[in-house]
Amino acid sequence: MGAIVIRIVACISLLFFLVPVTYVHGPVPDKNDSQFIELEPISFDSEDATRTKSGRLEFLRGWKLSSDNADFGGVSSMLALADDRFFMLSDAGVLIGFTLDEHKGQVKRPFIAPLPDGPPAENEFAKKNWDAESMVHDPETGQYWVGYERYHGVWRYGPSFARKEAEHQVKAMQKWPKNGGAEAMLRLPGNDDDPDRFLVFSESAAYGKGGYQALIFDGDPAEADLKPKLFGYRPPRGYEITDATLLPDGRALLLHRRFTPLEGVSAIVSIGDLSEIAAGEVWTSQRIASLKPPMKVDNMEALAVTVEDDETIIWIASDDNFNAFQETLLMKFRLLPGKRKRTRGKANRPASGAQNEKAEASPGFSSITN
Q1: CB of 119 closer than 8 Å to CB of 91
Q2: CA dihedral sign of residues 161, 87, 189, 187
Q3: 100-143, pLDDT tens digit by residue?
């Protein structure tokens, strides 16, 4: 019976994954501006309370987040900042911020507020079209970058999101599907001689050699005079990328989702070597974990990484699509060590990861080829 119920709910929820949302002019409902965010603990597996692992992910804690605020939900990207501070960005262009007190199961200093500015409405009858899907941050300057899907551009905001500083409606992105735009973004810190680089991933714009289109920006993608280079990213079969971030060793951590009427929603987490990216080529990553029922999983769209006592912590959040059939989840995992590859018959050659030592020391920046 449980499997049948899952399939029924999955079929209903499928509409929210596949049908584009159109904003039309109409009566504006009364809004609740509550700033209160409630946490409700969740278990990892609904059928096995002792289960805590999937692949290289070990479940530590998790919560269902809720608020009476009408703008709460739709989480599409996330940042984990210092002092247990989290910023979540919804695809409606709303920032959700809070300090997480894990042990008390509470949030402190919460706020829910729209971005100070965003793309213009598509027409005179439409509401604002702030289909924000990706977000990165520079802790040194305090600046933020947001990737907009339907607008197909990148905006830069000042510290604390106080104001918009620059915007770029990227020409190379204009043929991407309306709902397949800047789904994920990575900022690769530079150095004194080289600027930062940015990678922007399409969710569904096909790449000729396989996979989906992605762009390399040698500099700030919000600056209109910057022309990116194209490459392809091939996600796990049947899945689409939803977010990406950097691991402490400089590799990329990537999040993917899939939805089928029979199996419902599932997610895959993978790791990719940035030194293998090259303009004009197809890049891939290696799966490290899968999330699927009876594990707690929803429309997983947001990813962040922190470090605790020298251990890498992975945070995953879900997008409830502003509907009653889904939930806003925040899940905390420990990244478990991976298996080392054997180099049989190659005792006099370097270990498989040695050639990437320089790249990992500087988050893969210098290793991306032109």
Answers
A1: no
A2: negative
A3: 999 999 999 999 999 999 998 776 655 566 899 999 999 999 99
